[in-house]
Specification:
It is a single chain. By secondary structure, this protein is α/β, with parallel strands linked by helices. The chain has a single domain, classed as Queuine tRNA-ribosyltransferase-like (TIM Barrel, Alpha-Beta Barrel), CATH 3.20.20.105. The protein has eleven helices and eight strands.
Length: 286
Amino acid sequence: MKFAVITPPNLLAYSTLANTGYHLCLAQAAERHPEYRDFYRRRRELGDHVILDNGAAEGTSMRAADLFQLARSLQPDEVVAPDVLGDAQNTLDATEAFIVGYGKLLQIYDINIMVVPQGRTLVEWLWCFQEMVHTIEFDPHWENVTTFGIPKNLDDNPSTDRGDVLHILDMVGPELTDRFGFHLLGICSGITPMQHLANFANFYPWIRGMDSILPVQAGIAGQLIGANSTRKSLRYPTHRVDPLEPYLQTISMLGNRCAKTNIKRVIELCEGRIPDDGLSSRRELF
C-alpha cells in the first residue's frame, strides 16, 4: 500500500521527501496556487502516479466543468469524480452527471476516473457501491472508471468502519479486487489506532494506496505518530494546517523533524511494518 502525503502548497518538500511516487493533489489548492499545480504536473511528467481529488472532504465542492478543465490542464493519472459525504443517492447523481458529461472527454486525454461510494451506514455504502459496479458493466461512459475510493467518514459511524468494507470486498475475491484499484481516502478517524494501517496492508494487499495530511499536521505540533496513536490523541498546532492554503506560521526544528519522522513511520505502516514506539523512538529525530 503506497502513501500519498498531503501538504499545504508551500510545504511540498515533504511530499518530495516521502519519495513514494504516489500523490493526491487537491483540486481547490491546484486551482488557487499555480506553483502547487505545477509541482504535481512535474511529478506526473516524471512518471509518478497523480490523483486529482475533487476536494469534497475539504468541504468545498468544485463544479464538474471546472474539475474537468483542471484535469485537462494537470493531466493526472486519474480524477476523483464528485461525491457527497455520507449521501449515497446524491453521490450517485453527482458521479453520474460528471461521468456522462466528461467521461468520454477524459478518455481522450488518457485520464482515468476514481469513484467514491458514500452512505451513512454500511448497508447504504454497499448499495451505492453495487450501483456503481452495475453501471460500469452496462454504461460505456464509465469505461475509464478504474478505481474505487473508500472514504474515512465511514469510520465516523459507530456501527461500522472501513475494516468492515474491506473484509466484504476481500470476500468477494479477485474478480473484484484484481479488476479495480482501491484507495483509502484519509488515514483514520477518531480512536482507531494507526496500527490498523499495517493490518490493512498485510490482510488486504490489493489496496493500492492511502493519503493523509496527518503526519505533517501532527509533526508541526511536535507530536510523533506511533502504532498506538489515534487521531484524537494527537495534538495539533494552534493554527490548523489547512491543505488548501500556505502555512504561514514558523515551523520549529523539532516540528520539522517530527513531520519527517511521521512520514517515514506512516510509510512503514502502509508497508505492513510496525514502527517502534516509546521514548527510544525519539532518537530518530537527532
